[in-house]
Amino acid sequence: MRVSMLNLYSNNLQSLQNSTVDIAKLNQMMATSTSMLRPSDDPIGAVKVIGSQRDLAATNQYLDNTKSLSTSLDRAETYLSSMVELQSRMREISIASNNGSLSVEDRSAYAAEMGELLAAFSDTVNAKDEAGNYLFSGNLTNTPAISQDVDGKYIYQGDNNHREVQTTGSSWMTANVTAAEFMFSNGSGDILNQTQTYIDVLNNPDLAPGDPAFGQTMEQMSATLDDTLTSISAAITDIGGKQNTIGLLQTSHEERVLFNEEVIGETEGLDYAQATAEFNLKLTALKVTQQTFVQVNQLSLFNHM
Question: pTM for this structure?
């Protein structure tokens, strides 16, 4: 009788402990909204979740990279477009000022406006981003793209390097364009120094349309405007192509993020209805076991005499 009572006591105690553990586990699962508290709960599922989480983190990083890259390219395109507008007015002035009927004062007035356009163009080339980095200086982002030497000549101070941004696991995209590319690589010369030369000619009362020196400077100015416009337009077109690619990549990344989130959710997500039903069942079983345990614990040989 003593052995039977001991076994009954031990079995009920073990059942009570198991039920308590199961309820605590279910309670923790519902509190954390996951069906896997430990990898051992579902080894295969745990491996799948870890792989999906790793891919999700990488994809989110690529998505952030493309967003930052798109913003940077948008900013550069805005300033490049401003340069095109400034050049348009420069062209109008160069054509209008090549008129033999203009007085010295007329040419000086055109020279003054051209000087304002030159200053605006110079400021635009030295544009910065929101962090204070120069946009068109290559990798020398702390250095203004252009400055003037002791003789007043405009010079490029940046380098010819490009910043590369990773957009997928195996692809990178150039994030910047340098002033050296669109302004200082033209065979006809750079627009800044050529404009200053033309301003000097306009301000020279001894030179007028029809003079060989005036005509030669005018031709050089026109050629430089054409070449610079071609270079800047090519840079804008390149940025447009990159933005189209970025748009496609972002769509792909966003779909991949959703896919990974779904895989993680389906693998470790908790079915609340099922968990609640199981919790209530376990709780009922625990109450019954507790009642049984109390009764068994009170039993003795004298109860049967």
Answer: 0.78
